[in-house]
């Protein structure tokens, strides 16, 4: 029996969805049908949301789950009449926080995913542009890089760099190890001055071959033999040069970023 | 007085940080010093985290705030001895969810930011590759696009496309309106078959000139006059062709994505 879940918010709904997904992940095997109701910031929109949740209840006969991050108590009350199971994410913590900090909450719309701090937002965008323009090993302004990811083609460097830039404003460059680099068996000359900012990504050859086969079917580049040879050489190079590395085969970009930040002691928090 | 906040998690800490940031945003004017303690998944690591929080308490004399998403009650108890103000994010909701769903939570480490669903993860990576290779208006495999963002250079198209791809697996192409397109005053021929997937981004000319000036100082491209002309023509084109659009000047990529999904009725939720 599929359970319907609504994420309701006066802003993007990203916070509601993030915590909602984490909680629902604790109930494996139950299929959830998830819906986001963002920008619910007027009584009119709250009434529309309430009606939509109520219709779902009536249609399925099963109580919908409502994960709610609206700041306004007035709007929360309107939606509470939907009949759904209301999980008010902030409610249990606001009292303790107010007492601890000695001030009342503002009650303003949750703008944590809006452009609150313009300088920080600009840093994210600039870092993203940096990652995009240092994604090929050709541009060499590595002195600007917070860190440099190295690895063979399709080991996960590009999405990881983009994620770290978009969410943390970390300027991450990307150096694809070429056959020439790998045959040499030494750190490429242009990377040597930045040794303390290098991080290696590696991957199981079987998985790499699958990914490359999708991209260039039937190519030598995608053969298991070629992948084995490249990965083996890359891993030997990283070990020999003492470069920290991570196997990305079963690891998401969120986990890759977190592990890299741990390695370098980067305590950058989400913008 | 700066308040120290720890986000503690048995996984990446992204959920703890996301909800923590949203709650702290309700207390404007208080400076917070934020620290993430990820991958706390053994009693040993929990004891280290407890000691670190306790040292912060002793050093500052002010109780740290601890936003906690660890699933294991055993680990939560260890950290509770830190003396910090414990905000256990999931605790208030797990009982109601268990009763509603009729099953007990698994209590397993929160893997909601890990590679739980491989097919979904692959869709994110494939969409990111699509966005990267359709970022210039030259590639023309628009039949594959879920949507196409159009706008003048530096109106916010690229980071928005990357964000939608990385987090929602939405394949978004990016069409930069050229002078030639704008002089013509009509929808470029190659976009016409995809009219129902087009979304326009626009921006205040003053802000656009600032962004362009950073990129190409002193160029004609960055003059206010040029920006005014391009933006004016682009907005007229979008209006004339009935293309939905959004002014991105004060809007974050998270908000842009959410508004675009609303416009197209895309109910895609976060992976």
TrEMBL record, chains A, B:
Protein name: Putative phosphoenolpyruvate synthase regulatory protein
Keyword set includes Zinc-finger: no
Function: Bifunctional serine/threonine kinase and phosphorylase involved in the regulation of the phosphoenolpyruvate synthase (PEPS) by catalyzing its phosphorylation/dephosphorylation.
Reaction catalyzed: [pyruvate, water dikinase]-phosphate + phosphate + H(+) = [pyruvate, water dikinase] + diphosphate; [pyruvate, water dikinase] + ADP = [pyruvate, water dikinase]-phosphate + AMP + H(+)
EC number: 2.7.11.33, 2.7.4.28
UniProt-listed PANTHER family: PYRUVATE, PHOSPHATE DIKINASE REGULATORY PROTEIN 1, CHLOROPLASTIC
Ranges in coiled-coil conformation: none
Record flagged with keyword RNA-binding: no
InterPro entries on file: Kinase-pyrophosphorylase (IPR005177), PSRP (IPR026530)
Keywords: Kinase, Nucleotide-binding, Serine/threonine-protein kinase, Transferase
Enzyme class: transferase
Residues the record lists as binding ADP: 151-158
UniProt GO MF annotations: ADP binding; ATP binding; phosphotransferase activity, phosphate group as acceptor; protein serine/threonine kinase activity
UniProt record similarity statement: Belongs to the pyruvate, phosphate/water dikinase regulatory protein family. PSRP subfamily.
The organism's place on the tree of life at top rank: Bacteria
């Amino acid at each position: 029996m599929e359970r319907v879940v609504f994420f309701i918010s006066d802003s993007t709904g990203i916070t509601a969805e993030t915590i909602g997904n984490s909680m629902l992940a604790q109930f494996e095997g139950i299929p959830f049908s998830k819906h986001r109701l963002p920008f619910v910031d007027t009584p009119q929109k709250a009434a529309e949301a309430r009606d939509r949740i109520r219709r779902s209840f009536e249609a399925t006969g099963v109580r919908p789950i409502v994960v709610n991050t609206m700041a306004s108590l007035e709007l929360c009350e309107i939606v509470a009449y939907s009949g759904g199971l209301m999980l008010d994410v902030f409610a249990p913590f606001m009292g303790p926080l107010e007492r601890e900090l000695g001030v009342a909450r503002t009650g303003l719309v949750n703008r944590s995913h809006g452009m609150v701090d313009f300088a920080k937002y600009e840093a994210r965008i600039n870092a993203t542009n940096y990652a995009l323009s240092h994604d090929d090993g050709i541009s060499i302004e590595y002195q600007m890089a917070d860190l440099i990811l190295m690895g063979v083609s399709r080991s996960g460097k590009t999405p990881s760099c983009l994620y770290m830039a978009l969410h943390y404003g970390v300027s991450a460059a990307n150096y694809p190890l070429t056959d020439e680099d790998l045959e040499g068996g030494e750190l490429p000359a242009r990377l040597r001055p930045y040794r303390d900012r290098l991080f290696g990504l590696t991957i199981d050859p079987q998985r790499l071959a699958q990914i490359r086969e999708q991209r260039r079917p039937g190519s030598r580049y995608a053969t298991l033999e070629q992948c084995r040879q490249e990965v083996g050489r890359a891993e030997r190079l990283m070990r020999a040069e003492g470069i920290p590395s991570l196997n990305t085969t079963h690891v998401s970009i969120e986990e890759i970023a977190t592990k890299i930040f741990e390695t370098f002691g980067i305590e950058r928090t989400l913008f």
